[in-house]
Amino acid sequence: MLRTHTCGELSLEDVNQSVVLCGWVQRVRDKGGMIWLDLRDRYGITQLLFEEGKTPAQVLETARSLGREFVVSAKGEVIERLSKNDKISTGAIEIRVSELNVLNPAKLPPFLIEDETDGGDDIRMKYRYLDLRRNIVRKNLQLRHQVARYTRAYLDDLDFIEVETPVLIKSTPEGARDFVVPSRMNPGQFYALPQSPQTFKQLLMVAGFDRYYQIVKCFRDEDLRADRQPEFTQIDCEMSFVTQEDVLSTFEGMIRNLFSKVKNIELPEVPRMTYADAMRQYGSDKPDIRFEMKFTELKGGDQDLTSGKGFGVFDDAELVIGICATDCASYTRKQIDELTDWLKRPQIGAKGLVYVRYNTDGSIKSSVDKFYSDEDIKKWVVALNAKPGDLILILSGQADKARKQLNELRLEMGTRLGLRNPEEYRALWVLDFPLLEFGETENRWFAMHHPFTSPKIEDIELLDHSLGMVRANAYDMVINGVEVGGGSVRIFERGLQQKMFEILGFSQEEAQEQFGFLMNAFEFGAPPHAGIAFGFDRLCSIFGGADSIRDFIAFPKNNSGRDVMIDSPSVISDAQLKELAINVV
Amino acid sequence: MLRTHTCGELSLEDVNQSVVLCGWVQRVRDKGGMIWLDLRDRYGITQLLFEEGKTPAQVLETARSLGREFVVSAKGEVIERLSKNDKISTGAIEIRVSELNVLNPAKLPPFLIEDETDGGDDIRMKYRYLDLRRNIVRKNLQLRHQVARYTRAYLDDLDFIEVETPVLIKSTPEGARDFVVPSRMNPGQFYALPQSPQTFKQLLMVAGFDRYYQIVKCFRDEDLRADRQPEFTQIDCEMSFVTQEDVLSTFEGMIRNLFSKVKNIELPEVPRMTYADAMRQYGSDKPDIRFEMKFTELKGGDQDLTSGKGFGVFDDAELVIGICATDCASYTRKQIDELTDWLKRPQIGAKGLVYVRYNTDGSIKSSVDKFYSDEDIKKWVVALNAKPGDLILILSGQADKARKQLNELRLEMGTRLGLRNPEEYRALWVLDFPLLEFGETENRWFAMHHPFTSPKIEDIELLDHSLGMVRANAYDMVINGVEVGGGSVRIFERGLQQKMFEILGFSQEEAQEQFGFLMNAFEFGAPPHAGIAFGFDRLCSIFGGADSIRDFIAFPKNNSGRDVMIDSPSVISDAQLKELAINVV
After folding, report:
1. 3-state secondary structure of B44
2. Which of the listed residues A369, B27, B170, B496 has the most CB atoms within 10 Å of its CB?
3. What are B47's strand-pairing partners?
């Protein structure tokens, strides 16, 4: 080793020891007679001392020549520091340097290597290897390593086997768009990169592996939003001879174990909510339950507290729903107008916002005073369980749209009211998802989870006439309003699987060509099985209290799928194209 | 859970308990009044008992209807077995079944699900999910999981961080052929799949990660030999502020730890050999040192015990080398002819074989009696340290070829003499590889390891005039004649890296375009660093005492790079091609 210690481990106990440290120059303070240098490595910072008269002249000269981020090795004696720094673990000592070697000089970095940096996103991505030197970025990746370690430890303890499934697989038309890989040895044919190891893990169950997991890269060629990556990592799991309940308890255990080990937080038992309730009460299949503010239907179902008073907007609406924002009656007209404008942006698309101020003096002021009496509105107040000082916000229209819009408004109000503390964690199981959803554009049914998800046994007969009513044995885990995992009980019988493909519009030949290997496997003794997959990058970002998964990926790609550091993708040679028997159009 | 216990855990302690087991029907023995059924899962086999008169008639009927590999659930009482089977852990008990349910019937499998199967390679690959049910195949993958676990535990303890590097990277002309992935969002451009995370792990060192590892999939589009896979797994590692010695001791420690934990074998300290010695003494850079049989040069270097006696073959030869096969003087003429024919096959390409029998009575018989006196040949016997009863085998010709051929002969003799026991393990470090090798066809120099390997400091001046003489700080670990890992101290200075690319025939522009990101990174404070990568599939096959890596991969591809189970690669749709802006030629 070029060093005897790291920059994070020396303390008063080591005083008088001769040591060699290696690292990067974080900062040099030259006070004329004395020079202090902060030497940094992954483990910490240690202060080096150079003193006119005591330090060899040559060493002093070298110290004066150093710039930020030079890589040096320093030999010296550990001494007690006069003015101690209790913010760092090595703050009680410093090194009186007797030898100093520059291992590699450094050009001035294009941005500050500090927690608070002056570098913008683009420059930091281009020089990602410098960005990764910043403590906060490196700590995210250390956290990621810890989450992976504890995940493996938990699953290993439960007899799960990690099995690597192939990366070069087969393109299938169902699901998102595949990345493909031309095969040189099979001209005109292509591999696909897996969107998930779904069929392989099911085959491992057919093979009797009983409990499988894998922390595995997956790939989707989708148009990237801020928080999607073309390659991402999953904790992928499958179990045999289990019910949905077993999967829920096993993986609730995993998540609680991770919170305990990684965050030192004892997460309470994870509550459960049906998809139907989640949509009705929160307008979302991934509600943030750190705060209440549930939806109240003023018109909808059997209830109608709004029609027949001459307010056409509500009269024509399929649904009128509201939320109650505690202590917000003091919102000014300007604030409410601003909220209304926010709702009318095309991303949300609401037509307008109705409000009711329930003032602290008990009086009521609403934006629909001219249609509704105080008496009428009192009924709304009761329905919403509003207290004096509260503000009621109401949206209306086509039911699905109104719920989606109110979900956005609820989350926005939660944020504005400080009810979404990233250091507070509330997990939730959402259950009983619909099996199918109808694609209006394509005019056909799609699997909501994927085609291998089992309908609930009691709903199987609905497959013959009421596809939209069929519920699946499918479940999502949601933390703080973010879907972190999802899974289902799987179909394990050839007949039912074939029927699913029919419903999804596959001809028998297409189903056999694409998924014949799986349906055949079901005929050779497939056990009942179920599974789940967690978005690993996302889970890490939640543990890190951050919004973006990109900060938890060592070398992420930008929104155009480019790695700007290595400048990829790039053109390849004609010789390569020829070997692969493809042309660029 | 559909079961209360697995098929591998019940014992006499559980007698009288009511249990539910699930699993596969391994075997049914119907003796009329009694039926015994072996129920199998991953954890073991438990015997089920059905008895005419005692077992409900309906259950008996179901039991009689079962075929091999049916999936069933059985409820019953644990009872002590009359005739115990001490070969299995549950052999003292059986289950008196009261309820039996078929969870899924099974068609007759196309081959026997037993350790000794009647299925050939092709059928077992097509039905890999059935092959994986066989104990010996599943155990290989369980072993793989254990090797991964202990690898991670060892490295985690030493403060290594596992970091995931990207799979969608950039194609580079150096090294093997890349698999490429057309980018839809960047038409005409391609990602490449990594042949190794080499440049990324070096960037992590520049980023100050200090100690990195990753168990990671890598990809090479090469023509496949029996024991190559287009996708394979590496244990990839890198360290900063270290010398070659630190890497050797850290990873020798890892391998010894794995042998201890996985195989319960205490491997002795790993000996070291230079590349030059390995080639001279074994004709191979990966000698199998489970047995001696080192090469002796009869003509070569300063020695010449063969020239000037009228035997033109030896007179014209650059090198005459032999090995001594202990106790093989009794080899018949037929056996020696057969060895000669084996050597003359085109795979080896020897012109002929000279032998000397040193009989137990002290007499000598050789195939070149007519050119050499007993006196002459006695000198050979002394040089080879042969004892009465030994057989000397001699090859000659151009030095490199003769060594390669004798290496093959030595290994073959080792095998024939039973000196290569797969359960005996001998590891070896091979050091001081040449930095460069000359490609005759391409008429240029190639990096023997890769372009990032550092020359030995004392050999750097040779870069200006004697490229073939430059030794690298590169090392391989060899176990039982198989290269399981290799690495090097890296170049960490831009100037030297640039010089390497020049030597390899890159123009300055090409070097900058392909590897500019790395050379730029070296200018911002790159620490000295070194690393190693182990072939994980290969390592597992060695621990498993097997020759083929394919047995240690869950879903391997065949020699044409095809997955015959899922039938991949395959054609993709015109719509997909169009979106990707490519044509099939």
Report:
1. strand
2. B170
3. B38
Q: Kindly state the helix (H) or strand (E) to which residue A144 belongs, with its residue range.
A: helix A135-157
Residues in B closer than 8 angstroms to A145, CB to CB, are: 161-163
Q: Is the pLDDT of residue B488 over 70?
A: yes
Would strands B474-479 and B319-325 be described as parallel, antiparallel, or unpaired?
unpaired
Q: Which chain B residues in 400-419 lie under 8 Å from chain A, judged by CB atoms?
A: none
Q: Could you tell me if B190 and A571 are in contact, meaning their C-beta atoms sit under 8 angstroms apart?
A: yes
Residues of each annotated binding site of A for ATP? 220-222, 229, 483, 535-538
Separation of CA A28 from chain center: 39
Cβ-based contacts of A493 with chain B (< 8 Å): 104
Q: What ipTM score was computed for the predicted complex, to two decimals?
A: 0.95
CATH architecture observed for domain B137-272+427-553: 2-Layer Sandwich (3.30)
Q: Which residues of B touch A207 (CB under 8 A)?
A: 128-130, 132-133, 138
B73: closest chain A residue by CA: A241
Paired tokens of A552: 């938890």
Q: Is A24 in a helix, a strand, or coil?
A: strand
Q: With contacts defined as CB-CB under 8 Å, which chain A residues touch B109?
A: 524
Write A126-131 long-range contacts (CB < 8 A, 24+): A126/A564, A126/A565, A127/A565, A127/B524, A128/A554, A128/A555, A128/A565, A128/B203, A128/B207, A129/A565, A129/B203, A129/B204, A129/B206, A129/B207, A129/B521, A129/B524, A130/B207, A130/B524
Contacts of A268 (CB under 8 A, 6+ apart): none
Range(s) of chain B covered by CATH 3.30.930.10: 137-272+427-553
User: Interhelix angle for A508-521 vs A494-503, to 10°?
Assistant: 150
Amino acid identity, position B194: P
Distance, CA of A99 to chain centre = 48
CA distance B303 to chain A (A): 42
Measured between its terminal Cα atoms, the distance across chain A in Å is 54
- Separation CA A120–CA A21 (nearest Å): 32
| Helices B135-157, A135-157: inter-axial angle, 10-degree rounding | 140
Residue where the block lists tokens 């496949």: B224
Distance (Å, whole) CA B183 – CA B98? 60
Q: Say which CATH architecture domain B291-416 belongs to.
A: 2-Layer Sandwich (3.30)
Nearest to A525 among B106, B233, B527 (CB): B106
Per residue in A460-499, pLDDT tens?
999 999 999 999 999 999 999 999 999 999 999 999 999 9
Query: Of A545, A555, A583, A553, which Cα lies nearest the Cα of A128?
Result: A555
B492 in reach of chain A (CB within 8 A): yes
In chain A, list all ranges with CATH 2.40.50.140.
Answer: 12-104
Choose which CATH entry (2.60.40.10, 2.102.10.10, 2.40.10.10, 2.40.50.140) describes domain B12-104: 2.40.50.140
- Please tell me the predicted confidence (pLDDT) of residue A1: 93
In this predicted structure, what is the pLDDT of residue A226?
Answer: 66
Cα(A536)–Cα(B532) distance, rounded to whole angstroms?
27
Closest to A196 (Cα-Cα) out of A174, A228, A225: A174
**CB-facing half-sphere around the CA of B566: CA atoms within 13 A:** 29
Residues of chain B with CATH 3.30.1360.30: 291-416
Q: Are A571 and B188 in contact (CB under 8 A)?
A: yes
Its pTM stands at 0.95
Q: Best mutation site among B154, B190, B579 for testing chain A: the one with the most A CBs within 10 Å?
A: B190
Report the alpha-carbon angle B445-B449-B451, nearest 5: 65
Amino acid, single-letter form, for residue B585: V
Query: Chain B within 8 Å of A67 (Cβ-Cβ)?
Result: no
Contact (CB<8Å) B242/A522: no
